[in-house]
Amino acid sequence: MKSTQSPVAATSEVSGKPARAPRSRVRAVATAKRPSAAKKGPALSGEQRADMEGQIAAINRVQAVIEFSLDGTILKANDNFLKTLGYTLDEIRGHHHRMFVDPEHRDSAEYRMFWERLGRGEFDAGQYKRYGKNGKEVWIQASYNPIFDVSGRPFKVVKYATDVTEQVMARMALQQAVEQAQSVVDA
Fold first, then answer.
1. CA-wise closest residue to 41 among 8, 12, 18
2. Burial, 157: exposed, middle or buried (Cβ in 10 Å; 0-12, 13-18, 19+)?
3. Disulfide-capable partner of 10 in 15, 28, 110, 133 (CB 3.0 to 4.6 Å)?
4. What letters, b where the CB count within 10 A reaches 16 and e where it falls short, cover 64-80?
């Protein structure tokens, strides 16, 4: 949601107090320069806050959510994510995302470019094979979403994921059965 800048009273750079024009009762008005003041926007009403909190609660009920710094360091994760991969928050916080990735892939140029794109503010979505605690294979349908500060610069990445391991395994089993049946027919 994009908010517009609101005018604020100009302040003296020296004193930090409101600047007044000489012999005038009118305060000088300027567009805010500080990002926090510039794009903060109006306060949320009680209904708007309840709506936003309700949506976040709904996401957390059904999605595995994890937050990363721009370099891939894990900041926090919700219970669904932790349950899906079999970890506690203390076991993963401060570690890099690579702990969930196949060793061959995590050392690749493709993986480095993945984090570079996220750091530039580009999202990524798809189906990913990840590894949980004790090497447990987990397939997720996910999106990696850069989150932007009030100046429009990315400052973290949030991944929203759904565990699709059962569906992927069923599809692989079906594909294998079809291939076996085809080999019998061809023989």
1. 8
2. buried
3. 28
4. bbbbbebebebeebbeb
pTM of the full structure: 0.71
Let me know: does 112 contact 101? Beta carbons within 8 Å: no
130: which 2 tokens? 């990840």
